[in-house]
Structure of Dienelactone hydrolase domain-containing protein:
Amino acid sequence: MSQNVGMSSCCLSGKVHQGKPTGRDDEIGGLSTYISEPENHSNAKSIIFISDVFGYKFPNTRLLADQYAKAGFYTYVPDFHQGDSLPISFLDNIEPPLKTQETLSLVDKAKNAAIVPTTLGPWLITHREGVSRPLIDGFVNTVRMTPGTNKIGAVGFCWGGRYAILQAHGQDKSGQGRDVGGVDAAYACHPSLVAVPADFEPVAKPLSMALGTKDSLLDQGTVGKVQDLMAKKTDVPHEIRLYEDQVHGFALRNDWSSDEDKKAMDEAAQQGIEWFSKYLS
């Protein structure tokens, strides 16, 4: 039986980072897309970001895409939510910074938990797998057919983390007998809504994961099950790195004023860059 790991109010928490993204907005495959190019403008090694619930305009996501571009990857951040991402105001007005979550009273935690059904519930129905996966698969196919593209990676965060894992399953056959979706390597940061073992048993492409040891959505028991599942895949390159004392969302929304949290976020970015440098070569 598959165990589904959900989402919580911590998916709506974190810090908006300062900085000016250096890429551009365009339309790719019918979707509004932020594009950040490497210095040589080569798209041979392309990476597709699958964002969290705050979407492709979230400054943190774009700034991180710029980091990947500086490392030599042609980076796409598509609007898989089609203009319906959750507003960034939730970060500043409703939820406290990530680390503050651990010091909240029971009353405050209950208050924050109430956000889940009223905010995330309807949104998740609108952006369920039957709607979102065809968009993601289609975008991967569009990039695959773009002249100059050699290999493709997918990196996902929170909501998008699960879809990065699904892309690591490899190509599926559509109802018309066509190959759809599937990347050459994937990186999932603190994924939510994963089904264990169902989402991991079909993994056939190199998969890296970054998980916090205090992630409320992936407890250590669940992480252990995932580790056991992946350990059996001796023919599939994989890694699961655990970040001590980090909570859900740390790789994208950590507080830069904390040296410890900034270090964890920087290391998670480097983890992805090193993974793709190896498996998109």
